[in-house]
Amino acid sequence: MSAKKQDLLAAQLRPLIARLIRKLRKLSPANEQLSQSERSVLVLLDQYPQLLSAELAVMEKMTPQSMGQLLQHLSTLGLITRTPSDSDKRKINISLSAAGRERIEKVRRERDEWLSKAIGSVCTKEEQAILQAALVPLAKLVDFE
Questions:
Q1: How far apart are CA 53 and CA 107, in angstroms?
Q2: Where are the alpha helices (DSSP H) in the chain?
Q3: What residues does 84 pair with on adjacent strands?
Q4: Among residues 53, 27, 35, which one has the least CA distance to residue 107?
Q5: Domain limits, the chain
Q6: Which residues pair with 51 in a beta bridge?
Q7: Among positive and negative, which fits the CA dihedral 131, 135, 136, 142?
Q8: Phi/psi at 93 (5° precision)
Q9: Which CATH architecture best describes the domain 34-96?
Q10: pTM over 0.85
């Protein structure tokens, strides 16, 4: 494929992916009361069993003060737990609570159900096969540095 065709493909693909992501984010009633940053912190805590507030602040490129406020809100909602570190009682480990894990699972389920219904409703069997085949190159794009 020529560089010009690659540029055109990129220009067509980018807004479609962005719109799909925005649509998926809006679809979940379980996520309505959370900001994008709060949702992102919950996802990080799902990936890493426990993190320090300072680690989360660095990962999210936030000030420690802003992260503290964000964590306070998540704690008030019962979505995270705070436990003193075994090795250093001055440090507080942040992790997902059972309610936080349930929230993430519910959001993912809602998004998967919508996407599955959309694929089944608007895509032919051939188009569904194309989407299946596109998973490998899309994953490569996600992993590209």
A1: 24
A2: 3-27, 36-47, 53-60, 64-76, 98-122, 125-143
A3: 92
A4: 27
A5: 1-32+98-145, 34-96
A6: 94
A7: positive
A8: -85, 135
A9: Orthogonal Bundle (1.10)
A10: no
